[in-house]
Amino acid sequence: MSTRSTPTQQIGILVLEGDAPGGSAVKQILDSEGRRVRIVSDTQMLLAELKTGEWSLVIADVALTGVDGAAFLTLRELASVSPDDGGRVRVLYLIPELAVGQYMGHLEAARLPYVLRPYHLHDFLEKVSDLLVEVKAIEGPIRQVRHEFGALRKKKKQAGRSNSMFASRDSFTYTDEELAEYEKQESEASKSKRNKPRVNLGDPNR
Prior knowledge:
Layout: E1 12-16, H1 20-32, E2 36-40, H2 43-50, E3 57-61, H3 62-65, H4 70-80, E4 90-95, H5 100-109, E5 114-116, H6 121-134, H7 144-147, H8 149-162, H9 176-195
Parallel strand pairs: 1-2, 1-3, 3-4, 4-5
């Protein structure tokens, strides 16, 4: 049996989020990526879950962990272990909009990746993907925003209505390369449909 990679549905992401609507939005987005997601609302639950060893990525609100408590120190230690040395967990911090000055410097000094809230779904998914690649939970970055342009925009708008986690723009930011790739795929799909041979079920000679 091949063990080259972990099945997508087995990739575990643990989310520390005290805001129920925010946690629900993150879970919905990550569930749509095929991940196994668990939301916890305090650091005691977070530390208990970390002991299970089931999680490849922890997404944590830094306002809940602080920068000097047990949860922060534990996450920093886990994130510092290189995959070559057996490290299997990566950490992505969420910084609330009003706490950027309070926490950003600490996270940068600890070399812990973060996103500022409200943030754009495209950036969030890219960081999640890159961190999962780093611990070899997935084989390569998944740029699903390119391939499910409309679906993800719809999810982002739905999430934006229920919480302030995501930026309030009506559309995502895309590079020219991403838009060209998306348009190319749409063009090829359309051309494939047009070139598909038609079967005349009424022709007795077929």
